[in-house]
Amino acid sequence: MQSLLLLLPDFSLILLGAGLRRILVDSDAFWTGVEKLVYFVLFPALLFNSLAGASIDIGTALPFVLAGLAVLVSGFVYGLLGRRWMGLSGMGFASRLQCAYRFNTYIGIALAGKLHGAAGVAMMGGLAGAMVPFANLMAVGLLARHGQVSLIRELLKNPLVLATLAGLAWNFAGLDLAEPVESFLKRLGDAAVALGLLAVGAALRWGRIEGRWIGAAWLVVVKLMMLPATAWILGRQIGLEGIAFDILILFAALPSASSAYILAMRMGGDGPGVAWLISATTVLAIPTLAFWLHWL
Questions:
Q1: pLDDT digits (tens, 9 = 90+) for 270-284
Q2: In Å, how far are 33, 89, 263, 270 from 266, measured between CA atoms?
Q3: pLDDT tens-digit series, residues 99-133
Q4: Residue (of 25, 43, 38) closest to 202 by Cα position
Q5: Model-level pTM?
Q6: ∠ CA(64), CA(219), CA(282), 5° rounding?
Q7: How many Å from the N-terminal Cα to the C-terminal Cα in the chain?
Q8: CA dihedral defined by 38, 44, 45, 47, rounded to 10 degrees?
Q9: Which segments in the chain show pLDDT lower than 70?
C-alpha cells in the first residue's frame, strides 16, 4: 500500500495528461510543443543542475554504470529471444524490440526524487544520461539498414547526453553554481517533472496492432519484470548497496520511453505497434513498480 501511495502523485499526472489530451487540449501542435520544451530545455536543466552539485564517488559510480549497461544489454538479448513469437517483418520487429530496453527518464527522475531526494535525482540522471548513447546505438543499429539516420549525429545533438556531459564536467572541475543560476535551474527542473509526466500521459495510444499478442506480451514482461529481476541479482552479486542499488532496480523497472516511437516513425518502422507497447508498459508499470518498490 505504501508503494502505491508513493507512485500515486506521479502516475496521477500521467492520467491527467491523458485526460487533458482527450477532453480539453486535443491539439497535436500543443503537445508537440510541450514535449520539445521538456526535452530540449527543462529536462537538460534538471540533469545539469543535479549532476553539477552532486557528490560523485568514482569507485562507486563505475560498477553502478556498468551494471546499468548490463541491464540494458540484457533487455536487448531477452527481446531477441522472443523473435519467433512476434509474427512481424524484420523492420517491425526491430521497431518493437526497443521497448524491451529503452526507459522513460521522466518517470525515473520523478520516482528517484521521491525515494532519495536530490541524491536520487542526480544518480538517476547520471545513469540515464550515460545509457542514452548505448540505447540509441542498439536501436539505430538494427533500424539503420532501413533508414538514413546517422548515429553520431543523433548523439551529438541529444540534449540529455550533452547536459549529462556538461554537468559531470562542471562537477569534476570543482566549480560552484552562483545562487541565482542554481535557483533558475531548479525552477526549470521542477517544471520538467510535471510537464514531462503530463506529456507521457498525452502520448498514450491504443488500438489494434499487427503480429501475435504473445510477442507483444513477451516484450512487456521483459521490460517490467525480467529486467528488474536481472538488476536485483546483478546488483547483489557486485555488492551495490543503498541508493545505488535502489536506483539500479528502479531504472530497470521503468516503462518504455516515447523516444522509441519517435525513432520508429522517423525511420519508417512500426509506429503504431511501438506506441501500443509504450502505452501498455506505462499503465502496467503502476502495479509492477509498486511490487519492486515494496521489496526495496
A1: 778 888 888 889 989
A2: 18, 17, 5, 10
A3: 999 998 888 988 998 889 888 988 898 888 888 87
A4: 25
A5: 0.83
A6: 75
A7: 13
A8: 120
A9: 1, 3, 56-57, 141-155, 207-211, 263, 265-269
All structural domains of the chain, each given as residue ranges with its CATH number in brackets, are: 2-295 (1.20.1530.20)
Give 75's contacts (C-beta < 8 A, 6+ positions apart): 100, 101, 222, 223, 226, 227
- Cell numbers that stand for 123 in this block: 544518480
The CA-based angle 204-267-136, given to 5 degrees, is: 80
C-alpha cell of residue 183: 535557483
One-letter amino acid identity for 106?
Answer: Y
Q: What is the 3-state secondary structure (H, E, C) of the chain?
A: CHHHHHHHHHHHHHHHHHHHHHHCCCCHHHHHHHHHHHHHHHHHHHHHHHHHCCCCCHHHHHHHHHHHHHHHHHHHHHHHHCHHHCCCCHHHHHHHHHHHCCCCHHHHHHHHHHHHHHHHHHHHHHHHHHHHHHHHHHHHHHHHHHCCCCHHHHHHCCHHHHHHHHHHHHHHCCCCCCHHHHHHHHHHHHHHHHHHHHHHHHCCCCCCCCCCHHHHHHHHHHHHHHHHHHHHHHHHHCCCCHHHHHHHHHHHHCCCCCHHHHHHHHCCCCHHHHHHHHHHHHHHHHHHHHHHHHHC
Among 205, 218, 254, which residue's Cα sits nearest to residue 22? 205
- 499478442: which residue's cell? 213
Closest alpha carbon to 216 in 89, 80, 74, 82:
82
